[in-house]
Amino acid sequence: MPVNGRSTRRQMLARTGALGVSIAFAGSLSELFAGTAAAQTLGRRGYGPLVPDPNGLLDLPEGFRYQVLSREGDRLRSGEGRVPSHHDGMAAFAARSGGPRGRVHLVRNHENRVDAAIPVPAVEGLTYDPAGKGGCTVLTLDGRNTVLSERVALAGTAVNCAGGPTPWGTWLSCEETEDKAGTNGHTKDHGFVFEVDPANPRRTGAVPLTAMGRFQHEAVAVDPRRGIVYETEDAFLKPFGLFYRFLPDRPLGGTGSLRAGGRLQAMRVPGVPDLSSVQETGARFDGIEWVDVPDPLASGTPVRLQDFGRRGITHAQKLEGCYWGGRSVYFVSSFAHSADGSAADHYGQVWRYDPAARRLTLVVVFGPDTDLQLPGESPDNICLAPSGGLMVCEDGSGAQHVFGVTRRGEVYALARNRQAITSTATEAGGTPEEPEWGEFAGVTFSPDGRTMYVNCYTPGTTFAVTGPWRG
């Protein structure tokens, strides 16, 4: 997720405290919430201004409160080592057995590279490559969000960024890398998807789902009716990433079924080689094509560079979040910069693909800031809230936010990283800088809809946010 980016005017304003949080937002919100019954009456407005946190961690609206569930460097309750660095994608699952009702398994990615300060501890039976520093951990919580256990669920992987839940209650963890064996000290090829059973990680082990492709994975979403898995590729530099679908040989076969293999395809939008060239919300493209990937394992050439035939394939910069809603899959392009080679500039798009109609629609466009006429920060992880709203993790510079988006197209701040404000302010004043937190990541809700869980990327911190959620 983090990008080695350029210094921006937004970043400089953040350091002086002059930056507002309002961002422009255009699009058809009814489409985003089509799959949630609550969206018909709820999620229509925000929760009021953010109240500064006296503890200097997380600003929330009045009536909301947070708990710190886990911090990088603390001891894992399992005794396997320390809580790893770089908290990223996340999902919450109801614990269906082994305790009272209301328990939750919270599975969390760690986007660790070779230089990670605290790697995911290697655990026998759960480690893919002993040289890999990434993986997943699982927190088990009671009905009051008290942490009952915290343990390793997957180790020996690399750059575990996002992923997505399956209809059968497992987590698909995605490696955002294309390192091959012998690169960065790795002993095995990387760039795969791994399945994690949050209730019993040893049931799934550390087995790469190789048929789903080897590329810079970001997020996935599963069609609950057909079992097709949609995948985004986060490629910052040209050639940019692709949007994929995986047609499993055993669709909806339950835990382990994706190991049976299948066919990987990439999306072609006729006449549109680069999605950034589309600027108007509501723009619609029918007759979407899916082209077989020549070499899903990218044994010689990265997938996005392979030969997809005379008509080519459709690329997009920074494809990130992905989720299923109603009868469609939605995916995010965080930004596009013409200076990087994109066809046009934008500050965030949300696309909707309707498989039944084979139709792609540009639903939402973010930015620029309405108050300062600056680029709105890039949307990253994204999820539907039980109240019918959309929650978006901001990935940019300075103060970071979790934004809510209402059905009327209003954008409001639900959470703000207070420590990031402090660090940039002290830097501007010439005093020693406190550690700056990275972006928010992994926003998700408990199965009962009463708690929002979210990570700060660095130093890795997992929060539980409760309050007067509507609905």
Number of helices: 4
- Fraction in helix: under 10%
What gyration radius follows from the Cα positions, in whole Å? Answer: 21 Å
Head-to-tail CA distance between termini: 32 Å
**Beta-strand content estimate:** 25-35%
Low-confidence stretches: 2-44, 369-376, 421-435
CATH class: Mainly Beta
- The CATH superfamily turns out to be TolB, C-terminal domain
CATH topology assignment:
Neuraminidase
The CATH architecture would be 6 Propeller
Shape: globular
Summed up, the domain count is 1
Main pleated-sheet profile: 6 strands, antiparallel
Number of strands: 28
Structural class: mainly beta
| Mean pLDDT across residues | 84
Describe the structure.
By secondary structure, the chain is mainly beta. It has a single domain (9-466), classed as TolB, C-terminal domain (Neuraminidase), CATH 2.120.10. Helix content is 6%, strand content 35%. The chain has four helices and 28 strands. The chain has helices at 9-16, 29-32, 201-204, 418-429, and strands at residues 25-27, 50-51, 58-61, 65-71, 87-94, 104-110, 134-141, 147-157, 160-165, 171-175, 193-196, 217-222, 229-233, 243-248, 262-268, 284-285, 289-292, 319-325, 328-333, 349-354, 359-366, 378-384, 390-395, 401-405, 411-417, 440-445, 452-456, 461-466. The strands form six sheets. Strands 1, 16, 18, 19, 20 and 21 form a six-stranded antiparallel β-sheet that branches. It has a six-stranded antiparallel β-sheet with strand order 2-3-25-24-23-22. It has a five-stranded antiparallel β-sheet with strand order 12-13-14-15-17, with no helix packed on it. Strand 18 and strand 19 form a beta hairpin. The longest helix has 12 residues, at 418-429. The model is unreliable at 2-44, 369-376 and 421-435 (pLDDT under 50). Keywords: Signal.
